[in-house]
Amino acid sequence: MKPHYLTPLFSPRNVAVIGASDTPGSVGQAVFANLLAGNFQGKLYPVNLNHRIVGGIAATPSVRLIEGPIDLAVVTTALRGLPAIVKDCGKKGVKAILLAKDFSDSEDVERAAMDEARSLARHYGIRILGPNVLGLMRPVAGFNASNYNSRVKAGNLALVSQSSALCTAMLDWADSKGIGFSSVVSVGEALDVEFGEILDYLIADNFTQGILLHVHHVHDSRRFMSALRAAARTKPVVVVKSGRYEDDVIGVTHSSNMVESGDVFDAALSRAGVLRVATIAQLFTAAKVLAANYRVTGKRLAIVTNGIGPGVLAADSAYMYGVELAKLSAASLDLLNESLPRNWSGSNPVDIIGDASPVRFRTAVKVCLDDPNVDGVLVIFTPQAGTDHLTTAQLMVGLQRESNKPLFLSWLGDAKVSESRELFSKSKCAHFRAPEFAIEVFRNLASYHQNQQLLLQTPGPLEGERLVPDVLSARAVIAAAQAEGRSILSERESKAVLAAFNIPVNPTRLAASEDEAVRYAAEIGYPVVLKIDSPDIIYKSDVGGVELNISNEATLRDAYRGIIGRTLQARPEAKIVGISVQPMRKRRFARELMVGVTHDASFGPVITFGAGGIAVEVMQDRALSLPPVNHYLVERMIDKTRIGKILGPFKNMPGIDLEALKNIVLHVSELVCELPEVREMDINPLMADESGVVALDARIIVQPTTATKPYGHMAIMPYPVHIVHCAMLKDGTTVMIRPVRPEDAQMQQEFVRNLSEESRYNRYMSSIKQLSQSMLVRFTQLDYDREMALAMVRQTDNGEEQLAVARYITDPDNESCEFALEVADSWQGKGIGVTLMQALFDAAREQGLKTMVGEVLAGNKGMLKLMARLGFVVTTHPEDRALTIVTKDLQGEATVKSLQ
């Protein structure tokens, strides 16, 4: 893979400092002095209009007058002159600019100058970081292009912050704790380079083992989420968010009114497999523990202590943090009863009595570590008469080396136990001065594990006997409303859209008169429900626009007139279309639920689930998730709600049809994926019982879409159903070409096992017999926004058989991609390579990619012949003559036709 396009920014060889100065207190002086003092190994060039020498180095009045190439220009002058500077840098061939200068929102002149500079930078292919106060540091390389005047230690954590002020506070805190960094990046105003691009660089940075993010707001959520998910697959990422309540979700439906932007951000981070924390201290503590490879697989904690008071306080902290106290198995309790004094606590917390010896501590902790019901152990030592803190500490260090479960050690006191703490630090054990800090870290580790499980979820098409939605019908309903200038669909229109996506709805008939309502009620059968139908009224109950359980004609006529009268009194300006007539669903054991959709300014559509009914906003019982979702994610949503606890058998009530409920949420996910026009939606009430689920009422808010490519309105790219298609091979075999799904793992493994040794070597350039588990996950759990794998399969009596697979992964520049192709030996020579590669070309073009590149062994004549037929340019690898590089311009002439 070619060097990352941000390499000139992060690892420049030649740096020009525009505005470098000897003036005390100036930004130019601070930045240039830091570069000189940082032992930067590249060449430094000061640029100053008024001085010939700066810091003892000859200066030039313009970057264009510097002899030799310049990778990075650091700008410390006023932003008003930025356009001219960018133009000079462009003509010089500079690849990156760092704006180490503050920006004032109130300065219209500066805003105009930045907009012009950004346009010029795009013209010249220059990337810009900033403007920001702090700058950029690479402590591992001695590169400090910032005005930060304190020491920054080199280490393996990367710190990326949107706020320069918060970044300096983090650096000061980290220095006091001896924490070092591979990179420190202040994103600032994000004129050009954003979080997603920086994350992409750090993913491949060998100096970075963990990433710390401070985020205030996100501009490009798709790029941010895609990069965040890619980073979280390879190294721990911890995030602290500021401005949690600044950007509340705004809308008119219950789903929007119940959601805060901070909740959406939490859901996004969870889905990305990263950990969110609340404070700077938690940020660094969590990062250190994760980078040290501490992991848990659940949230069940055992506490072992020689003091019942600290043990009970720790248990209280566990309850407060949502940590579950492990229930020790019967076998463990038997072992503890045999080994501990009679008056031990008998349960968790395990109080082993104040005079506990080191061996007694080891016995109790070992039993807990071995218990399958325990995910981690907190050991609390209190110095008492007869105890030996150091020997106990030594035994704990040994136990941690033996166990794959984490130990959290809290030696209470100060001077008396200082030697034990030094031992823990040298042994890199997780130790804490107070038990509550340890419990907080355990909680974070458990959350991180859960989020990593969410990261693995790659929702495919709906499973089972899939009912294909009538997308065209749904779009026609929306288009008709928009043609009338309406953004709010009526209940009938909303239900028509739901029905098009196979969501059961209560049928609705619109009556324009009292007599018509009577006729419809007779056809439907009493009892019925009457509801006002008005494009100006979203919630009918608010105006007295609903009458339930109408059992006869006389009651219906009274109800009809009453609804009209109350509505006109409450909303005299409202346009009344008529009264809808619906069957009254009598369900003795039904629960009222709500499924909704809202829209977040950063992350797009969000699905909500919770308790329904007219008091939904008062109850505030809801969970949310970014679409697309699958069964696992839906189950997580349901489990997070209070109403979810009574969906199973409850007192005299049978459990609801849970599978039907899950399918409703899955169909809603499908709806928001396929209909970018849907801005908000409420299905409330959604009635659920043992017989099934039905939407009794619904409302949808729409707006014109601004998405320019499929699923462009979503933060997470869903399974691209639209590119699934059938084809016919030369021999008449009918095959399907579709994106790879997580459930294809076993089929993919069998495919690789059945390849010949020569084919496996040609593809993987090694003699592997099968894919490792990590490779299998990597090849089948895809982020379709940045990579694609297309499988060609045929249907057999035993299910699907994979004949070939072609894949690409996007380079960080988002313009080029690297591809790979493998065809089963017995299916070679049947035109598969051409057919599959053409489909891959189309998928890459749809994502806006311009170039496809691959490496092929020089001896693989068959593949090279295929590449030539497909229009690839073949060149010798510059570093390895055993390899060739094949390159195709995807934006040029289409693939040669009729190759078969």
Automatic annotation (TrEMBL):
InterPro entries recorded: Acyl-CoA_Synth/Transferase (IPR051538), Acyl_CoA_acyltransferase (IPR016181), ATP-grasp (IPR011761), ATP_grasp_subdomain_1 (IPR013815), CoA-bd (IPR003781), GNAT_dom (IPR000182), Ligase_CoA_dom (IPR043938), NAD(P)-bd_dom_sf (IPR036291)
SUPFAM superfamilies: Acyl-CoA N-acyltransferases (Nat) (SSF55729), Glutathione synthetase ATP-binding domain-like (SSF56059), NAD(P)-binding Rossmann-fold domains (SSF51735), Succinyl-CoA synthetase domains (SSF52210)
Domain of life assignment: Bacteria
ATP-grasp domain ranges (all copies): 495-531
Domain N-acetyltransferase: 735-891
Keywords of the record: ATP-binding, Ligase, Nucleotide-binding
Name of this chain's protein: GCN5 family N-acetyltransferase
Source organism of the structure: Vogesella alkaliphila
